[in-house]
Design a protein that fits this description.
CATH architecture of the largest domain: 3-Layer(aba) Sandwich
CATH superfamily of the largest domain: NAD(P)-binding Rossmann-like Domain
Oligomer: single chain
CATH topology of the largest domain: Rossmann fold
Bound molecules: adenosine-5'-triphosphate
Number of domains: 2
Strand content: 25-35%
Order of helices and strands: EHEHEHEHEHEHEEHHEEEH
Distance between the termini: 49 Å
Structural class: alpha/beta
Helix content: 25-40%
CATH class of the largest domain: Alpha Beta
Number of helices: 9
Length: 232
């Protein structure tokens, strides 16, 4: 992948690459998302209207620019219309979020993600045509509720009513193959993978024998995986 710096040619315009993302709004959510993208090898253009935030992120993202994303000219000058993927991580200033989303949709950005702070905010973003609306606080609250409730070490809701949990192996299922344990039949969940101590994760199959100290990833209906995580 060519370096991002070549995107700034002699002209003031830059051409975004396929594997690059523009993140607008570098608050707690936007900055951690942008840093994680950089860590994963994606080139990131970060945009924020606050000079202090731009300063603090300088050098940590591929490029960080101070601009007001509600201004079409600013987005055009930064060649945002060339990006395939843009994330709007502005929450509190709902008006700025909506104006930015409206401009990006008009610019026909193929994939726009936006953070919403309320149902109404999310609904407007969806109506504008934003492809993925996310509710970080609400989603994290729901996720933590499941962690607080049960013995799950981690919890991920894949869809409404269907989840994946990371949990320890109940005593009754240790020392026998998964085929013999009949977990799917008896508990309506599937053990997808396991990890022995600090070893790598391995896919589980019917011949897998689990032991004390193993960790498993279990998928199935939310209620069933929660019940499974609570077994001792
Ligand atoms: P978080 O919860 O992610 O920390 P926050 O609630 O603190 O976010 P938000 O109001 O959601 O802050 O804004 C996130 C960032 O978006 C801020 O750093 C803010 O400066 C930036 N921002 C707000 N409006 C604009 C805009 N019009 N153009 C560019 N950046 C903006």
């Amino acid at each position: 992948m060519a370096s991002f710096s070549h995107l700034f040619g002699a002209s003031s315009h830059r051409i975004a690459e396929a594997d690059s993302v523009a993140v607008i709004g570098l608050g707690r959510f936007g900055s951690s998302l942008a840093l994680e993208l950089v860590d994963a090898g994606t080139e990131v253009l970060g945009i924020d209207s606050d000079e202090d935030i731009v300063q603090s992120m300088n050098g940590r993202l591929t490029q960080v620019v101070r601009a007001d994303s509600t201004r079409r000219e600013a987005l055009e000058q930064l060649a945002v219309p060339e990006f395939d993927r843009v994330v709007i991580a502005i929450g509190d200033d709902v008006q700025a979020s909506i104006l930015t989303a409206s401009l990006l949709i008009q610019m026909r950005i193929p994939v726009v993600w936006a953070k919403a702070v309320s149902e109404q905010h999310g609904l407007i973003l969806e109506q504008l045509g934003v492809h993925h609306v996310i509710y970080p606080e609400k989603d994290m609250g729901r996720r933590v509720a499941h962690l607080v409730r049960g013995a799950a070490l981690d919890y991920l809701e894949i869809d409404r009513g269907y989840a994946l949990v990371k949990t320890s192996v109940p005593e009754r299922f240790r020392g026998v193959t998964l085929g013999q344990a009949g977990i799917r039949r008896g508990h309506g969940v599937t053990v997808a993978a396991y990890r022995r101590g600090s070893a790598e994760w391995s896919n589980a199959d019917t011949d897998t024998v689990l032991h004390d100290g193993d960790t498993v990833l279990v998928v199935g209906p939310t209620r069933r995986v929660e019940e499974f995580a609570q077994l001792r």
